[in-house]
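Q: I'm writing up a methods section and want to include an example of the input and output format. Could you take the sequence below and give the corresponding predicted structure tokens, formatted cleanly so I can copy it straight into the document?
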Amino acid sequence: MSQSVPFVDLRRLQAPLRAELQAAFDRVLDHGVYILGPEVAAFELQLAQYLTAQGAVGVSCGTDALLATFLALKLPAGSEILMTPLSFVASASSVLRAGLRPVFVDLPEAGFHPDVGAFEAAWGANTAGILAVHLFGEPFEMGPLVELCDRKGGVLVEDCAQAIGARAKDGRSVGCAGKAGTLSFFPAKNLGAIGDGGAVFSDDEELLQRVTQIRQHGRESRDVYSHLGGNFRLDALQAAFLAVLLPELDGWVAARRNNAEFYRHSFEELVTKGRVLLPKDVVGHGWNQFCIRTHQRAALRDALSAAGVGHAVYYTRALHQQGALAAAQPAASLPNAERCCDEVVALPVYPGLTVTERDRVVEVVSAALA
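A: Here is the clean output for your methods example:
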């Protein structure tokens, strides 16, 4: 059935930029350099300036950004990386593929991030650091994590795949507090390519140099390969498109924040009745997703589907429940994460959402959970 309210419609965002995107395509087609080249170099500089980072390295996708980062860190094989059990599978599989072991730390009863006390309790003799995932665009409280990693001598990496445009309390982009930040340019992200792409950014020039080599199979110079790497290059077309789209990002995030604030105000009565739990209104939130929690998820999803309102579940299973990660020997049960997976529903929040569509979302949710 057609959706009266799409979960996301990227055409609405790209249509006003069609001429600029076409010109970017033509420019690459004219010079014929399709792998790396001037567009990638220019976008890396543009991105680093936006993020206020020392540098950025464009890669093929957000998954490869994580993998290249953990390979570049050169941690001892089998070292443990503490992380949330609520994220896309790539957050953990990249750790595992780098020869490390993800260790999942349960969520609090409410909220989408483990707290620092839980991370400290999980820190063991083989722990090498923490992967902080800024899930759904919600900035992690980084100060306590930085202090913990400094005190323990661990590394801190930030998975910002869903959070470009989000800001920490000090106003800097998320991803600047740790050793490195990683990005995904999957089309539905706050800044999405017309295809796939990702990036690693950091203030550590040596780390960035290793990532640059790793994205080309570990190549140091012609026929000299110093690191284990892969084909993780960002192609010129995606870099050219992203350079057109990046100046729009702050306006798009502002629209997301406006939509999220409208939902928060509109659902106050449902909160009072105990029907829903709303996401935290954290300063600097990027609102890649607006995820509510409800014990009546099945009924809500039925109502949304019947009304043609796009929605999604992130995620139906926690990471410790994924067979692909069995080699990490995860905990058998993390009850708070599992409960979250049973209750969470994402509503349309993208910047192309119209006022009429937004009103319709509220109408359907309010009626279903009254």
